[in-house]
Structures are given as structure tokens and as C-alpha cells.
């Protein structure tokens, strides 16, 4: 089969479209014939070495397709089932073998491209908004990259939960996109200081929670955007890793909370995985959650997809199609 492998760390040029052995499902595993694969910044982190992985490595953390083989002892799925998964390794490939317990069913009213586009970022938006900081009706929240993959879903889910949503974006096109998703206020951070704008919008009070996937470029001003006892939720680092800092800063800025969550810890059990994915696919199927697929690239063009993602050109989810 074909897969995207890396043998060394670096830029998109280290992504190689190669022949590799078709994986055989072991006990408790199922093999998925991939129909769509999501592209995420976490793939970039692994490619650059910001997250550790063993080389050579097949990239990818999510996807959707059809079960085409199962190992012994599998009870969760059957051959022919439409399924999705996240987070799991090796998805930039034509076939993936994965523990069957990590697969979730895709309902009939959701197609596999929607499932692949939504599963990782949708599960992330779900745990951030329901568990890391459970948004309450009337909260004012700040969502960075509000027109991006996870940000766009967070905006919509926060509105479902009755929040006032402030989003940040990089340009006017993304401003219109964030507003169309329901953001109440949108700040084009390349034109104004977002921390000052947040204080203006909130009459100096600040927000209850900041959802920050950007990292070093936004971290300090995100802290300054919070009200006392607010929550700084740092869940990504698209602009680079945040440098060590004195926790006394949290005290000085209002007894703030700081957390650095990751999806795996919020879908550690099958019960939690199924609960979150069911909510996600129900919302999509009912039309409550819009999934915008920005561009589709053939699997062989994974390097082009990474260039597009890192160039901040993406509006909506990027998919690889095997």
C-alpha cells in the first residue's frame, strides 16, 4: 500500500509517498480501508520534532473509512462498518490497523469525509468546552484562530452552550467566516491589539476562559485577557512553544488557572470516546454543527497540504484522500 513516511525531521520536504506493507490486524484490532484522512497541526509538530516519535514514522492522527478485516476477539466492529478514529497514529495511509476499541461508528447521516474532517478537532472542541472548562450559559469566552479547524467548532459549541464568544482571526475573510459561525465579536489581531480589544468589549472585566491553540505569539496577552480566577486553556502551539515562566504571574493577574490538556487523556476510556463522538456526530447529522472542508489533496500531495496549512491559507478542514 501507499503511505506518507518521514525518515528525518524537518519541513514538508521530509514527507515521502512510499510503498509499505499492508498492516495485518492482530488480536483485538481491526483494519480500516481509509477513505479520508484529516490534516492537523499535531502532524506538523511530529514532523518537526516538537512532539517525540520514533523514526521512520507514518504521520497522521485521524481518519475515517470502512472496516475491511478484523483480528481475533473483536466485538466492537464488523467488516463493512463505517468508522472513524482519533487520536491514533499512522493515518496517512491507504490502510490502518487499530485497536477496535478506538473506533467509533459513523452514522448514516454523516459521510466519511465529514467524519474525518470532524473527529479529532471535534472531540477536542468537545472536551475543551465540556470538561477542561465546562462553559456555562452567560460566560464570555475568547477563542483564538476562530475560523480554523478546532476554533470554528469551539465557536459553534460555545454558542450552543449559551456563551458570548469573542474570536480572533488573521484577516477580513476569516473575520466573516467566524461571524457566520456565530461569533459575537471578532478581532482581526493583525490590525489591532487583541488584549486591548477584549478589555474594551468586556468593559475592562476580561473573559472567563481563553482557548489558545496558537502558543507563544498569544500566550502573554491571553493571560491579560482573563478576568480574576479565569481559565487559560493552552491546547496547541502553532506559532511555537511557550517559554517557561514564573507561576507568580498567575497570582498577579488574578489567581488564574492554567492548563495544558491533550485529547488522549479525555478519551482514555471507550465509554468517554463513544459519548463524545456520539454528541459530535449527532450535532453534525442534525445540522447543528457546520463542518467546512476547505481543500482536499491526494494522499501523495501531503507535503503540499502541510505547506498550505502552515501558510495560514486554510479556511476549513484539510483532507488527504487515499
Report on the architecture of this protein.
- This protein has 322 residues and is of the alpha/beta class.
- It has nine helices and 16 strands.
- It has two domains: 2-119 and 267-321, Quinone Oxidoreductase, Chain A, domain 1; 136-260, 3-Layer(aba) Sandwich (Rossmann fold), CATH 3.40.50.
- The protein has helices spanning 41-48, 112-132, 149-160, 172-180, 194-201, 219-224, 248-252, 270-285, 302-310; strands at 2-6, 16-19, 29-38, 57-58, 63-70, 82-85, 95-99, 104-105, 140-143, 164-169, 185-188, 207-212, 226-234, 257-259, 293-298, 317-321.
- The strands form three sheets. Strands 3, 5, 6, 7, 8, 15 and 16 form a seven-stranded mixed beta sheet that branches.
- Strand 9, helix 3 (149-160) and strand 10 form a beta-alpha-beta unit.
- The radius of gyration is 20 Å and the shape is globular.
Query: Care to count the β-strands?
Result: 16
Terminal-residue CA separation: 10 Å
CATH level-1 class of the largest domain: Alpha Beta
Contiguous helical run count? 9
Shape: globular
According to CATH, the homologous superfamily of the largest domain is Medium-chain alcohol dehydrogenases, catalytic domain
**Number of folding domains?**
2
Unreliable stretches, pLDDT < 50, 5 or more residues? none
The oligomeric state of the chains shown is single chain
Largest sheet: 7 strands, mixed
Based on the coordinates given, report the CATH architecture of the largest domain.
Answer: Alpha-Beta Complex
Strand content: 25-35%
What value does the Rg take, in angstroms? Answer: 20 Å
The overall pLDDT average reads 95
Structural class: alpha/beta
SSE succession: EEEHEEEEEHEHEHEHEHEHEHEHE
Amino acid at each position: 500500500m501507499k503511505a506518507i513516511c518521514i525518515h528525518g525531521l524537518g519541513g514538508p520536504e521530509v514527507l515521502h509517498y512510499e510503498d509499505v506493507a499492508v498492516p495485518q490486524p492482530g488480536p483485538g484490532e481491526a483494519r480500516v480501508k481509509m477513505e479520508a484522512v484529516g490534516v492537523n497541526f499535531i502532524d506538523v509538530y511530529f514532523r518537526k520534532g516538537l512532539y517525540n516519535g520514533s523514526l521512520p514514522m507514518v504521520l497522521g492522527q485521524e481518519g475515517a473509512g470502512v472496516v475491511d478485516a478484523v483480528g481475533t476477539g473483536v466485538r466492537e466492529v464488523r467488516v463493512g462498518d463505517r468508522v472513524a478514529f482519533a487520536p491514533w497514529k499512522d493515518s496517512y495511509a491507504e490502510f490502518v490497523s487499530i485497536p477496535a476499541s478506538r473506533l467509533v461508528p459513523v452514522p448514516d447521516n454523516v459521510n466519511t469525509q465529514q467524519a474525518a474532517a470532524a473527529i479529532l478537532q471535534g472531540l477536542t472542541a468537545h472536551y475543551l468546552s465540556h470538561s477542561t472548562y465546562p462553559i456555562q450559559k452567560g460566560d464570555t469566552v475568547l477563542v483564538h484562530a476562530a475560523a480554523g479547524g478546532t476554533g470554528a467548532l469551539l465557536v459553534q459549541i460555545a454558542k450552543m452552550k449559551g456563551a458570548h464568544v469573542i474570536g480572533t482571526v488573521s484577516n477580513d475573510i476569516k473575520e466573516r467566516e467566524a461571524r457566520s459561525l456565530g461569533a459575537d465579536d471578532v478581532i482581526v489581531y493583525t490590525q489591532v491589539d487583541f488584549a486591548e480589544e477584549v478589555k474594551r468589549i468586556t468593559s475592562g472585566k476580561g473573559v472567563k476562559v481563553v482557548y489558545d491553540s496558537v502558543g507563544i505569539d498569544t500566550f502573554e496577552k491571553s493571560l491579560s485577557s482573563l478576568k480574576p480566577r479565569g481559565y487559560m486553556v493552552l491546547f496547541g502551539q502553532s506559532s511555537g512553544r511557550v517559554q517557561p515562566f514564573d507561576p507568580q504571574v498567575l497570582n498577579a493577574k488574578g489567581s488564574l488557572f492554567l492548563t495544558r490538556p491533550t485529547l488522549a487523556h479525555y478519551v482514555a476510556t471507550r465509554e468517554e470516546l463513544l459519548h463524545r463522538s456520539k454528541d459530535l456526530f449527532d450535532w453534525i447529522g442534525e445540522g447543528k454543527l457546520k463542518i467546512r472542508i476547505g481543500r482536499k489533496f491526494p494522499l501523495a500531495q501531503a507535503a503540499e497540504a502541510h505547506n498550505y496549512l502552515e501558510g495560514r491559507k486554510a479556511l476549513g478542514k484539510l483532507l488527504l484522500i487515499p
